[in-house]
Specification:
This protein has 199 residues and is of the alpha+beta class. Helix content is 42%, strand content 23%. It is built from five helices and seven strands, in the order αβαββαββααββ. The strands form two sheets. Strands 2-4-5-7-6 form a five-stranded mixed sheet. A hairpin with a 3-residue loop joins strand 4 and strand 5 (120-127). Helix 2 crosses helix 3 and helix 3 (86-104) runs antiparallel to helix 5. The N and C termini lie far apart (71 Å).
């Protein structure tokens, strides 16, 4: 009986140690993602790795991604660092991903794709939700315009994204949408010329 009790104690202790180790790893990953997301320890303007920014945003939003949503990352190997206000770009990814998750209502595929050409880096965030009606596409970036029910959206998320991408980074933001396939495309200049206007 003593040997069995000792065996149970040993197994319990090992399981507890594994849980503690796993928890510590998860906490460390979350803290690192939070630092990357907030960019608190970095210069406001920097040459940023967009993949790191996107990944940190996904970690920060992990609790909001339902089990029925599959996340697909299709990252270009050749994407260079982009001169940017990294913490503000993370607000853009957050708003676009949050909208995509809302559109899918717990079931579907969220795809994040990157590529680049000579002048720009491009990030595309796509969902398989119901799509945006044609009459709303023209107004989707207007402040306070929302297609969400009352109490579920401020109508400022896409306006903020527009101001950060277009006004502050001199980039480009557009949406294409049909039922089952909505894509927000962000293009950012690789040279960073004239970046810095107030959003």
């Amino acid at each position: 009986a003593g040997a069995i009790h000792w065996l149970y104690y040993t197994v319990d202790t090992e399981l507890l140690m594994k849980e503690i180790t796993d928890s510590a790893t998860r906490i460390s990953t979350l803290v690192e993602a939070a630092k990357q997301y907030s960019q608190m320890d970095r210069s406001p303007h920097q040459n940023a790795d967009l993949h790191e920014l996107l990944d940190s945003t996904l970690v920060m939003m992990a609790g909001k991604i339902p089990a029925g949503v599959t996340v697909v990352k299709d990252y270009a190997d050749t994407l260079p660092p982009v001169p940017s206000y990294a913490a503000e770009l993370n607000q853009v990814w957050t708003n676009l991903i949050d909208n995509a998750l809302d559109a899918m209502d717990g079931q579907g595929t969220l795809t994040i794709r990157t590529h680049n050409d000579d002048d720009h880096a491009t990030v595309q965030i796509s969902d398989t939700g119901l799509g945006i009606p044609d009459e709303d596409k023209e107004r989707i970036f207007e402040p306070f315009f929302t297609t969400k029910p009352i109490g579920h959206g401020t109508g400022l998320g896409l306006d903020i994204a527009w101001r950060i991408v277009v006004n502050k980074h001199r980039g480009y933001l557009k949406v294409t949408s049909v039922p089952g396939a909505t894509t927000f495309t962000v293009r950012l200049p690789l040279e960073g010329a004239e970046i810095g206007a107030t959003p």
